[in-house]
Structures are given as structure tokens and as C-alpha cells.
Design brief:
- The chain is mainly α.
- It has one domain.
- Helix content is about 70%, strand content about 0%.
Length: about 170
Amino acid sequence: MERTPVMERPTTEADGWLLISLLVLIVRIALGITFVVASIDKIADPGAFAQSILNYKLVSLDVALVIATVLPWLELLCGLGILAGVLIRGSALLLFVMLVVFTALVVSALARGLDISCGCFTWDPTADRIGLWKIGENALLVLGSVIIFYAKSTRFSLEHYFRVSSSGTG
């Protein structure tokens, strides 16, 4: 018996762009939610976040208080921007810079033998300790920010919606 070949629908360029758009959307959602969630406790208790910053033993109390006041709001705005699809590239770039700096701080703290909590999602000093796992986690987040920054696709975003609406091409 001769087998009849199964006819597959040919992949079109549009199918490829849709797949890429969906993958970029998934990365945007993951990165956006991560930073929105990470910002909530920091915004709610900037004093505890300042103490977490001081645990890295690199800045004074005054600098830690400024960082603890500004950084969580920047994380929140960038996370929301990436989720909603507003100022996507700028938000991705800011997250990239924050992640690279934070990763350098973790490496520095590990090299100096500090056994501290990273201060990312909780103020429990026994939770989320810095280590190689945190560096790997940050590397994935850095990769996500790079993907978002360089992605040409804004299909599932407010930027795309406004661009299509203003051009009149439904």
C-alpha cells in the first residue's frame, strides 16, 4: 500500500510574524509582571527596601533612601509600560540597565562573601538569598529585556493600536 502524503498548509510570512509577535508578547508579559510584582513591596515599605540596599555595603544611608524611593516607581512604570505596550523600547532599555547594575551588585556581594537577601520580592532576610541562582535568573531577565528592545513586533500593544488607528488602516 502506498501512503498518501499529508498536505500541510504552507507557512506564510504572516504566520511567521504572528508567531514572533506572540513570543515577544509572552516575554513582555513575563518581564512586565516580574517588575510590577517586585515593585509593590518596595513601594509599600521604602524603609525596608533601603535597609536591603544597605546590606550590600556600597552606599550611604542617604543614597540608599533616594534609591529606595525612586527605583521601585521606575520598576513599576517600566513593568506597566512593557505590559501595556507603551514606550516599550525605552522601558526595556531601562530594565536592562537596572538588571545589569543589580547583577553586578550581586556578583560584588558574593565576591565579598556577603550572605544577604537580594531584596527583590520580600523583606524576609532568610528568603531569596543571593547566589549563582540569582545571577542566572537575572541573566534570563536581561535576555528578555534585550529581546523586547530589539523586537520589531509591537503587534499586541497600545503603540501598535494607536499607530494603526491614526493611519486609518484598520
